[in-house]
Amino acid sequence: MSAPPTPTGETIVYLDSNYHPLPSNFFPAPHTYTAYPHTPLPQIAPRILPATILLTSLCPLTRETLSLLPPSQLKLIIITSVGTNHVDLVYCAENNIQVSNMPDTNTETVAEHALALYFAVKRDVVSMHEWTMKAEQWASQGTGILGMNSWQGGGARSCRSEVVGIVGGGKIGLAISNLCTALGMKVLISERKSIPQAQARAGRTAFSTILTECTTIILACPLSPETKNLIAAHELSLMRRDAILVNVARGGVVNEADLARALDEGEILGAATDVFEREPVEKGGSPLVRGEGEERVRNLIVSPHVAWFGRDSQEKCVRAIAEIFEGYLKGEKVNFVV
Predict the structure, then answer these.
(1) Is 305 designated active site?
(2) N or C: which end of the chain has fewer CB within 10 A?
(3) Are 11-105+311-330 and 106-302 in the same CATH fold?
């Protein structure tokens, strides 16, 4: 059971309120609310010191950091996102700290962003934009197809020719599956990597088969010890040379150095990612985002962890924050993880 509310009001600290800005009176008196639009890593520890309730989307809350607070002071952590890998859940369980997240707020937006990234890679959207804006080669070559990454392979296949493997059978994975099916794609849902086909659950396909047979693989799974570096050099070597990899899961699910090498060497056709192992990423801070003067990774599309963002998801998240907080005051656990 979580600790009871503080009679004199809670001290609420939001470490990265840029994700979901809340009005200053969102938490009424006698509660106090402090919002930091962004909290760099060195500032996390000092900023959480007065808190009885913490809100964060992605700031890492480790055992070392959380243990700086007096025992029993921190009562609730509201993760304003789906993933929980950045919070030490074991420490929270040991210290009677309730943790709640937002499991149903961004399902549609993440699924749609995954498809947007897929089409951006498949149709060379970014490189074709840059190629066209230069306004040089089109006139001299007479056609724009010569600038496309897929030109030598005969062009991009139609959706009805795609075999899409989805790694992650949760709500987001199923939403992606529905969109792909509506576009006429054949969809396979991956079984866990450690489970062979003979033991696969109904409706699941062995992970090894996903790698070798799918023309597109979309990652939508949580980051855990089991999924850390789920896609690395060996897995990339098994994929089709005309395959596309899309990651809307977590950065650590893919080994970034191995992916950069595979793309540069043409081991797979292309990739897109919305997530990175270390965020926010700076120029030169990831093998996928190279430093000044370095050549870009071949046929890679990136976005800055924004797949979750949309009008509907924002409204749902703000409602969920209110429901979790009101439930906590009543002694009820809403969307609780531990």
Answers:
(1) yes
(2) N
(3) yes
Q: How far, in Å, CA of 172 to CA of 104, rounded? A: 9
Q: Which two tokens stand for residue 172?
A: 């987001």
- The amino acid sitting at 121 is V
pLDDT at residue 125 in the model: 92
Boundaries of every domain in the chain: 11-105+311-330, 106-302
Q: What is the pLDDT of residue 130?
A: 87
11-105+311-330 has which CATH code? 3.40.50.720
The CATH class of 106-302 is alpha beta
Q: Which residue is catalytic, options 20, 31, 113, 305? A: 305
Q: Which parts of the chain register pLDDT below 50?
A: none
Is pTM beyond 0.85? Reply is yes
* Candidates 250, 256, 267, 277; catalytic one: 250
Active site residue 250: yes
H or E element in which residue 171 lies: helix 171-182
Element of type H or E holding 164:
strand 163-167
Catalytic residue among 112, 213, 279, 323: 279
Q: Which residue has the tokens 């950045």?
A: 86
279 noted as active-site residue: yes
